[in-house]
Task: structure prediction
Amino acid sequence: MLDKILSISFWFDLTPGGWQSLRLFFGAVGLVLVVAGAVLKYYPNIKPDFKYRKTINRLGNGFIAAGVLELILWWWRDQQVPFFSARFWYALWAGGVVVWLVFVVGSFRRTKKRQEEQARYKEEFAKYLPKREK
Result:
């Protein structure tokens, strides 16, 4: 089985067979990604003081895009479109999702570090300001 997956002909077969067992799984993955993306996209709007609004919006946009692309691939595979139902499209899709997640996590780490530095700076600066009297 592993030697079959590692062969080039497995990935670049333009009319692959053996789809029935994974058909429901890939459809569900696409739908879950779209729903998760919609929830993540609109979650920061519920909480107006949410710190990581930009990162969560990026996650939502990416999940929606990945889910829609996966559903398009799923539909092409289900309709047995010769070139677009090839397995290498799923490999490209999965690689793209992984690269996108790496960039989003990197952006999150930079944003978190920047916000912590700003909080320390404000705290340090506030020491020298006169206190308000009540």
The mean pLDDT is 85. The first helix runs from residue 2 to 5.
